Amino acid sequence: MKTKFQGEFDMRPIRPSSAERTGRGTRRKVSPALAAFGLTAALALTATACGPGDSTADSKPSASATASATGQLQIPSDVLDQLKKHGIDLDKWKNGAWRNWDRATWLREAKDYVNPIIQGLWDPDRMRKADKPPKESVPHDISGDKGITDPVPTPVRAAAVKAPYHQNLPELGKLFFDSPEGSMVCSATVVQDPAHPGKSNMVWTAGHCVHAGAKGGWYRNIAFVPSYNNAALPTAQLQKATRQQIAPYGVYWADWAQTSQQWIEGGGPTGGQGAPYDFAVLHVTPEKGSNGKSLEETVGGALPVDFNAPAVPKISSMAANGFPAAPPYDGQKLFQCKDKPGRLSLAASLPTMYRIGCTMTGGSSGGGWIATGSDGRASLVSNTSIGPVTAGWLAGPRLGKEAKGVYDSVSTKYAGR
């Protein structure tokens, strides 16, 4: 593998079998505009997927909302207005209309996000099956660079996080969502909310885990499960695991999601020009009511986000965390890679990304990168975005003013609630 990388890619998806579809495996060629730079490349976003979801929704689901003290969910008027605005019938939606991915009905603009809760949709079986990896891979040649790119890091073997996960990384969890290719998974992290100190309902992940980018729209049925499979049960035992074993702290639906406009306009299956802006912030609500507790109170922690992390040479180590699902992993356990970060430039005009050696694969996308921040505290400083199919390294965006704008916007939206 060559040491430098730049560019925007023209992708053509590989067609997996009908039983297994993937949001990760793609085959593509370098766009003519970048041929002049002598580039060949093939990166993959590190989300992974299985076949289209076929679970039947609960007979009496309800829409996403804040929870009352009695635990009963109520549909807020703004959600109903958004549904009506786009011609979405809630009863039809919860009974399967969400599976219609026709371009005309696939909402894509930042203001158009809606995600009605379908209670019971993410049952243990459906969560477990949302981890099938792609059957085919893609080339991995990388060359050319006009910005600052450090040599390709030596692969760092991902280490299994000690169970129970809640005792070691209580902020980490797994993200589930549905796409035109099927049920998919990413990783995510509970982060602090400036508007609600100690009572955050905000979660950080990758932009491509919530929105398909330039050629798509918002994904659906987005739900976060903190400390997924907290006891690290073997896959065989998960076949009969209860919801409490798989989701001990509950299932939280994203009642609002926000990503960068750069990702919406320029993101693609291998990152594209949106990769340096591949981050997203969710506001979540519990599927079955909160009993008066926030997500942060429920899990016992939330990470601060550092939008002014030290320069790469001054960072001795970063820890990337996630639930990798492509071989040799199965998506059921939490892993971590620690490495000194280097720099990866996709184009001279784009922000340089962090890069570390790591063997984690698809499914680890969106997982938080933790390092000592500018204030000396352990902070979230990035998230997994892209990596080669050979799984030797991962890259994540540097969090600057654009990321802070997304974060502050979500916090402000719920400041008075």
TrEMBL record:
Region (Disordered): 1-29, 52-71, 125-152
Low complexity composition-biased segments: 52-70
InterPro entries documented for this protein: Glutamyl_endopeptidase, Peptidase_S1_PA, Peptidase_S1_PA_chymotrypsin
Biased composition (Basic and acidic residues): 1-13, 125-148
Keyword Signal on entry: yes
UniProt entry keywords in alphabetical sequence: Signal
Superkingdom of source: Bacteria
PANTHER family membership: PEPTIDASE S1 DOMAIN-CONTAINING PROTEIN, SERINE PROTEASE
Protein name according to UniProt: Secreted protein
UniProt organism field: Streptomyces xanthochromogenes
